[in-house]
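TODO from last week: model CDP-alcohol phosphatidyltransferase family protein.
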Amino acid sequence: MPSSLVPQQQWDTDAVWTIPNVISFVRLLGIPAFCWLIVIGNDLGAIILLVVFGATDWVDGFVARRLKQRTQLGARLDPIADRLYILATVAALMFRGLVPWWFVMILFARDVMLACLLPILKRHGLVSLPVNYVGKLGTLLLLFALPLILLGGHSSIGWPAAHWIGWFLGVAGALAYWAAGLLYVRETLHLAKDR
């Protein structure tokens, strides 16, 4: 097995209802409200909610380490919540006419590609691959880019600087997102070959 696929995380507990997991569940439940705020044009409310949920993304990890409540479920919920926020946000922005359909499809296609790896991973007793730093960078860039694109949009506040910085970060984030996806494909193919 490639060294990058060796589980390196020790879990503190198998419990589901830990404080960090509850924070992650609340974040997931906030996605529909966040998207609705974008769709109805309440951009300030959407950005405030995004900042709050972005902060909880850091808080849940901090609390898990501090209270020794790191769980395998929590490690899976975190990237799922990030992906859902990104995909839901770009879909809502596309609905508002602030991002083109092809940008949504680029991000969506990457996650479809990763979903195609699941049967191979399951065959080898894995549910997912460890999150890599390129993927974390892509997620971070996109989570910064999307609110800026919203603020820079013609149907929003219309700040030109926010528009251009948002799109610069968005393109960089999409490239990192895809680079991470290709690394996951490579690791999965190594796994399939080595077993």
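Done. Residues 1-8 have pLDDT under 50 and may be disordered.
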